Request: fold
Amino acid sequence: MERTDVLKQLGFKKLGENDAERFVGTLFGYPTTVILPAIAQFKFVFTIAEEIPKNQLKELQKEFNDEPLLKNRVTLKTTDENVGKFNTLENNSINSGFVLFVELINPNTEQEVYDKFMEMLEQIISSEENIKPLDSCPYCQNGKGDMMVNVNNQLRFVHKTCLDDIQQSTIAGNEERSFNTGYIRGTLGAIAGAVIGGIPALLILYFANYFVWLLFALIPLAASIGWSLMKAKRGIVSIAIIIITTIIVSLAVDVTCNFLILREELSDILFSEVIRYFYMDSYIFGEYLMRDTLLSLVGAVIGIFISWSWVGKTDKGEEKILATVIDEAVPVE
Ligand SMILES: [Zn+2]
Reply:
């Protein structure tokens, strides 16, 4: 039996016109996205209300491994590279659910493997106290809703009315910003955000003399949040300003660190003197500071790369994602 036939029998709906890889529906009462990544592979993503503790996951994994038919064929996880947070519908962070991710390899080879898998899955998932479907609408938290939408391969129950409200307010907000761009406001927000985001990287650099790339990612992330909080138009201008702000603040982290170190010896040294003596003098710069400055720049670039889903957000892009999500919404049956 073909995998797609199996899913159709379960009442699952295919997402997208040309996209044969994702199906959505409910399985054992759980909102479930099924991904078909390669030949003879099933990836079930169940949206659940609570995170499953690691030791419990291990025990469940063991139950599958102890079944001869399913040994080395089933993998249970709480995260997966195909599954992101349920957060692209609007700018505000909304309560993101948790997932139980179950992968089955080679289900097509034998029908009994597939049957056994489904039997065990249902038994396990319904007998565990804390593995419950997440059944509240993420926008109003008020009941289950009449539709299901898939965002980053996480399927959630939502109200049609809540979805319509979000689409209308998103479009209205974007329209307002297209007249009143707010670039100055946005830039100030980005700078304030970047400075706050740079504090952890500065502290680690100063106290531990260590560059932590992940902390540099906080700079563009916080700059993007700062820009968005100022409700300024997001597009090519916001992306450019956030990138420039990130680079400047990343370099400033390094300069500030050197200033703090020098101030321990020379208590009356000024910030401007540090810049003039050390960064403007090509000999001193080349001899002592080039490496750290380059590391800061690398930190900025890596940071922008890591937080690109925030930095690269545009009003148009968000409207498009929203339209696709709404387009792909399926009614709860
Ligand atoms: Zn709702």
Observations:
- The longest helix spans residues 236-265.
- The chain has two domains: 3-158, 181-320.
- The chain has a mean pLDDT of 88.
